[in-house]
């Protein structure tokens, strides 16, 4: 990550703005959902999983193909696909003995694309 030279200002007062706090509390998402969201975003925190998602934009693929593409073992790819599937980011279909993986839905690409937009803005 590029070094960020921003200076962060801190508030030097001790005034609590009760009206603002009340208004924000009423609109905040419940803590359980925020925790679930944090767990969801953790899945995107692994470079291998990001590469797998990116690969699946172009085509559904089997574990063998993904492993070859990323120069990794099938076991390592299977582990990452399991994590992605549990997070409902990928789905699979079986064709004979071959299991093909694809993105679960269009939302996955949208999440990925929004992340890239943000990264491109700060670089």
Protein architecture, described:
There is one protein chain. The chain has 123 residues and is mainly α. It contains 6 helices and 3 strands, in the order H-H-H-E-H-H-E-E-H. The protein has helices spanning 18-27, 31-43, 47-58, 63-70, 74-86, 106-122, and strands at residues 61-62, 90-95, 98-103. It has a 3-stranded antiparallel beta sheet. Strand 2 (90-95) and strand 3 (98-103) form a beta hairpin. Helix 4 (63-70) crosses helix 5 (74-86). The longest helix is centred in the last third of the chain and has 17 residues, at 106-122. It starts with 17 loop residues before the first helix and ends with a helix.
Q: Helix share of residues?
A: 55-70%
Element pattern in H and E: HHHEHHEEH
Biggest beta sheet attributes: 3 strands, antiparallel
How many β-strands, per DSSP? Answer: 3
Which range does the strand content fall in? 5-15%
Annotation field: number of helices: 6
* Radius of gyration from CA coordinates: 20 Å
Shape: elongated
Distance between the termini: 9 Å
The overall pLDDT average reads 92
- Numbering strands along the chain, what is their spatial order in the largest sheet? 1-3-2
């Amino acid at each position: 990550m590029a070094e960020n030279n921003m200076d962060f200002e801190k508030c030097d007062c001790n005034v609590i703005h009760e009206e603002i706090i009340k208004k924000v509390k009423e609109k905040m998402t419940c803590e359980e959902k925020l925790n679930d969201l944090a767990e969801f975003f953790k899945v995107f925190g692994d470079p291998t999983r990001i590469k797998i998602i990116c690969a699946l934009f172009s085509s559904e693929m089997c574990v063998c193909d993904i492993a070859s593409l990323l120069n990794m073992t099938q076991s390592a790819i299977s582990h990452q696909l399991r994590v992605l599937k549990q997070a409902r980011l990928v789905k699979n279909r079986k064709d004979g003995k071959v299991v093909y993986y694809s993105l679960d839905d269009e939302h996955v690409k949208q999440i990925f694309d929004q992340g890239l937009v943000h990264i491109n803005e700060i670089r």
